[in-house]
């Protein structure tokens, strides 16, 4: 499989972005190639060869992405190979998970303030400010999603 220089650059850019969000390099690049490729699905071999990563790294990356719901695979009649693709229908689930994670962080930060015995009003004020923002975000987000859906439906009508 041949990719353009721009496609290869985007795979790398996306990979670096995902690495900064905690993904392993091979996992990040596999996600990148599945997003950037002109083909809707790619085989194990296409991914491994195009990214020039080992079969083991490819297998581990694909299994991690399958287990976390980022990708899925399909098979075609008469073909034993699996064809991998981005699971684009789960953006809302992914977004909700991120919001749940922020809610969990917010709860931990509130408990941090409760147990801290240090006298540092500047730090405490900054932490309270961040906690307040997370509370606000949690309250506003359902409205934002609803507004976006209404706007999106009107534009597509």
UniProtKB/TrEMBL annotation:
Keyword DNA-binding (UniProt): yes
Keywords linked to the UniProt accession: DNA-binding, Transcription, Transcription regulation
InterPro entries: ArsR-like_HTH, HTH-GbsR_regulator, HTH_MarR-typ, WH-like_DNA-bd_sf, WH_DNA-bd_sf
One Pfam family matching this protein: MarR_2
Keyword Transcription: yes
HTH marR-type domain span: 22-81
SUPFAM superfamilies (UniProt xref): Winged helix' DNA-binding domain
PANTHER family for this protein: HTH-TYPE TRANSCRIPTIONAL REGULATOR MJ1563-RELATED (PTHR38465:SF1)
Protein name in UniProt: MarR family transcriptional regulator
Organism: Pontibacter populi
Organism taxonomic ancestry: Bacteria, Pseudomonadati, Bacteroidota, Cytophagia, Cytophagales
């Amino acid at each position: 499989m041949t990719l353009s220089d721009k496609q290869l650059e985007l795979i790398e850019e996306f990979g670096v972005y995902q690495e900064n969000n905690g993904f392993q390099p091979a996992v990040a690049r596999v996600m990148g190639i599945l997003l950037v490729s002109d083909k809707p699905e790619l085989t194990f071999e296409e991914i491994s060869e195009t990214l020039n990563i080992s079969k083991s790294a490819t297998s581990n990356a694909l299994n991690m992405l399958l287990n976390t719901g980022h990708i899925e695979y399909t098979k075609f009649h008469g073909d034993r190979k699996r064809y991998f693709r981005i699971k684009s229908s789960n953006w809302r689930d992914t977004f909700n998970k991120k919001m749940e994670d922020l809610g969990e962080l917010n709860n931990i930060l509130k408990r941090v303030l409760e147990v801290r015995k240090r006298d540092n009003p500047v730090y405490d004020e900054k932490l309270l400010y961040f906690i307040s923002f997370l509370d606000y975000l949690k309250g506003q987000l359902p409205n934002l999603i609803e507004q976006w859906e209404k706007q999106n439906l009107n534009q597509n009508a």
